[in-house]
Amino acid sequence: MVFLKWEEPVEPNGLITQYEISYQSIESSDPSVNVPGQRRTVSKLRNETYHMFSGLHPGTTYLVSVRARTSKGFGQTALTEITTNISAPTFDYEEVPSPVSESENTITVVLRPAVGRGAPVSAYHVVVVEVDGSRQVRRRELGPQDCFPVPLSHSEAQAKGVPNYYTAELAPDSLPEASEFTVGDNHTYNGYWNSPLDPSKNYLIYFQAASHFRGVRDLTFLVLFYCLQLDVLPHC
Questions:
Q1: For 140, phi and psi rounded to 5 degrees?
Q2: What domain count does the chain have?
Q3: What DSSP line would sit under 145-188, residue for residue?
Q4: PROSITE patterns, alphabetically (predicted)?
Q5: Phi-psi category of residue 212: left, alpha or beta, with phi > 0 → left and psi -120 to 50 → alpha
Q6: What's the domain range around 152?
Q7: What is the pLDDT, as a whole number, of residue 220?
């Protein structure tokens, strides 16, 4: 949605009877958006010097024109460009899957690609969070306000006493389709050490997709699973 407000012409040359607003998409990083798009027109009453555009595509630039009309016809057109914010990517999980397999220090899960909204996915992150076993944690999707935008490696998280760390960063082209990934395999993924899990601790594993567009970053998360003391309860 975009809210647009304008001023009455300095020289209306008569009594304004209406305003006409036209808009169309002219640029988008989303390949599903047609550019240039269909031009749409909205009429406003003479005392309505504002309009709320709704149903717009995220991450898309629109060319907007406004012109006033009197009994003599339409006057000059004022032009402006408006770019909508991107939206968080969405995952195609119908339901949260169970782990594929487990060992004393690892958990293998299925990662599915996300769909960008307004901008393509720029990176995936697998995030590990140590949790207090006394807390009741339920699987749920999280919004951007619950994300982990600050990347912390395992060593950085330990040094700062923070319970969460990036255990892997994956490029979008490395996940063209659903693939298995082993958390805690002791390998390094784009600079992040996938540290073996401690079987005496409790963990939440998150899967994050990030999009970037013109300096704006949006994130979305999915809680993959909750594991409680791997050496005692081998199945989550």
A1: -165, 155
A2: 2
A3: GGS--S---HHHHHHHT-SEEEEEEE-GGG-SS-EEEEET-S-E
A4: FN3 (PS50853)
A5: beta
A6: 88-227
A7: 57
Does residue 144 sit in helix, strand or coil?
A: helix
Q: Does residue 197 lie in a domain region?
A: yes
120 shares its domain with 210: yes
pTM of the model: 0.70
Euclidean distance between CA atoms 236 and 233, whole angstroms: 7
Give the whole-angstrom CA distance, residue 48 versus residue 108: 58
- Report yes or no on 235 lying in a domain: no
pLDDT value, residue 12: 84
Residue-wise pLDDT for 55-73, tens only, equals 999 889 999 999 999 999 9
Residue for token digits 């006394």?
134
Residues 206 and 131 in one domain: yes
Kindly tell me if the per-residue pLDDT of 235 is higher than 50: no
Domain shared by 79 and 115, yes or no: no
Give dist(CA 131, CA 21) in Å, integer: 53
**What pLDDT is stored for residue 219 in this prediction?**
53
Domain limit, last residue, from 50, 84, 118: 84
